[in-house]
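pasting for the record
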Amino acid sequence: MRSRAGRKARRLLGRVAFYLFLALIIFYTVFPFYWAIVSSLKAGSELFTVDFWPPHPAWDNYVAVFREQPFGRNILNSLFVAVSTVILSLTLAVAAAYALGRIQFRGRTTLLIVVLGVSMFPQIAVLSGMFELIRSLGLYNNLLALTLSYMIFTLPFTVWVLTTFMRELPKELEEAAIVDGAKPFTIVTKVFMPLMGPALATTGLLAFIAAWNEFLFALTFTLSSEMRTVPVAIALISGASSFELPWGNIMAASVIVTVPLIILVLIFQRRIVSGLTAGAVKG
């Protein structure tokens, strides 16, 4: 009886410890966003007071973000760049994943390692070369310059993940399609892609987030306020002087650009988990 009671007590303590640890993780991840929302609803000296919720919410901060600069245009710029980056990355990555995952040729593993190694270079290391390339192409201060430059860090990741997923697809499906006379393009688009929904959702969403939040290339390759993306627009929000930054406006802008990402993650969370675990266990 004592041993049984002891096991029950240990289980109870284990559950309590688990839920406390889970609550700590949730608090650690959610609290910064909560504090950003609270700060976005404060103005003046209220920013330096600690309140669980401001007694007089300053909704004017959200209006000022759009009134004092072309923030709506900046959001559309980020949306265009992120969506175009995702489309190009997935299109090229699916084709590359089929070649690297289903076709046998010499140097395939080496090529895949090189593709992944490209993403290990810091952005600052390739910034000067990308600047010369963008300028020679006549794309400076153009959104297409950002789409092209973002491919450096989105394409290697998408190729790697989709190649891993592509290798796990049954060979019988491909063989049956070949017997029916299907070409490689038909096999990829009609046979494999319907099965790659979780992997495509995962890589596409992560590429979207990376492109949406990118700052260094966006700051370097754009000049006018009408061509800036939201991270640069937020960073360049200024007050009456360099010592009086409008933190309420900055926090309001941060909340505005973070909410769409949270919504996307909540919508595709199941596919994200399925895509990240794809290929982890072989049957």
